[in-house]
Description:
By secondary structure, this protein is mainly alpha-helical. Helices cover 80% and strands 0% of the residues. Helix 3 packs antiparallel against helix 9, helix 9 runs parallel beside helix 11 (270-290) and helix 11 packs antiparallel against helix 12 (296-311). The protein starts with a helix and ends with a helix. The relative contact order is 0.22.
Amino acid sequence: MTISFFDFLGQLFNNIPLLITVILTLGVILVNGWTDAPNAIATCVSTRAIGPKAAILMATIFNFLGVFVMTMINANVAQTIYNMVDFRGDPHYALIALCAALFAIVVWATTAWYFGIPTSESHALIAGISGAAIALQGGLKGINGNEWMKVIYGLLLSTFLGFFMGWIIVKIIGFIFKGFDRRKTSGFFKYSQIGGGAAMAFMHGAQDGQKFMGVFMLGIFLANGRGDIENFIIPVWLMVLCSLVMALGTSIGGYKIIKAVGMDMVKLEQYQGFAADLAGAGCLLLSSVTGIPVSTTHTKTTAIMGVGAAKRLSSVNWGVVKEMVWTWVLTFPGCGIIGFLMAELFIWIF
């Protein structure tokens, strides 16, 4: 099942619950743009391979291409997020619970952004809707265990594979270019890193764009009293809308996250930035093809850690890493509890 753009517009202003859901979902996508999407371009900006404005424009284009191309080929990630929780039952209360989850995600992500900590919007999204589904269904029956296990797999994949791929790729690059004059290779790595940043932006769109579009489609179906839809087709107009809102968020507040990931955690040279981008993009491609929802923040930052650790462990600012890890650890219970409490409150009020 799907919905055309004109049908969507026709319903939007005649269906207040749908309007509220759309506003909240776009708010979450906007927050993702300023707290998550900057990770894709953090390294190429921090090494001065490309300027911030040009990098944001590049991220905008490749985020859209990632959303569009990968969704056309394989929409498994969107289906996983859609089927991860059970919002069936009374569509009225289900929609209220979903709105509460989206509100919780915005609160959590905005707080983390204020402190310049690159939290994972993927984890916040998963935790928020899970907490709301538990509140809606009155227990863990609101969670689809088989689909939720993919989140655990994704957590392990993004942590260990991201780190080791970063470590291995930078070692391989160092070995290949060992005898070269570094001044002669600087131009090559400058443009290679721009390409790596574009690949990361493409895969960010492929992963995070699909997650939020899956929730967007869930909101549309619930607003129309259809909580029983199991399969859907993502329309092109939604891909465009998601990409534009995400790009707007990146242009508004991306620099804080770029600084934390690309400058404060590890001081990178251009060849190291290219290695981190290549490792991160490779991990995201593997997870997208297999339908495993992973955090682009998690994947990129662990790849950067691996690159830094390949030189020496002291190259990594472990104080910054510690802040990030605590944020990741707290996101699941923190945002999940907020989603649960907001859902209980919203259901009681409305």
